[in-house]
Design goal:
By secondary structure, this protein is an alpha+beta fold. A hairpin with a 2-residue loop joins strand 3 and strand 4.
Length: 107
């Protein structure tokens, strides 16, 4: 059996590890933190949980495609909750001159 080593247990590392497993690899995944997920993980403080992920998921196909690749239905694991759009553009702190109109996002 082919062997692969994946460094990092964020969404990218988890996604490639799932693809490699589906393709028949024996996968070892290494993560420096105590939990997997990277920016899609949580921080717990007292009785509170804080999601570290973006509050808006702009490209859901990136998340659902990995399930399709692995012959799984993402709806067996999570669901999307559509929210009304309350803004007409995204502003970027690092690039204040760059404005991304909401209408330019794929539907």
């Amino acid at each position: 059996m082919k062997k692969a080593i994946v460094i990092g247990g964020g969404i990218g590392g988890l996604s490639i590890a799932a693809r490699l497993l589906k393709d028949g690899f024996n996968v070892d995944l290494y993560e420096k933190n105590k939990s997997l997920g990277g920016k899609i993980s949580q921080v717990k403080f007292a009785d509170f949980k804080f999601d570290l992920t973006a509050s808006l998921l702009m490209i859901p196909n990136d998340y659902t495609e990995i399930f399709s690749y692995c012959n799984k239905n993402y709806k067996d694991y999570f669901s999307f909750i559509p929210l009304p759009i309350t803004a007409d553009r995204f502003l970027f702190y690092q690039h204040p001159d760059l404005l991304l109109p909401i209408s330019s996002l794929p539907s």
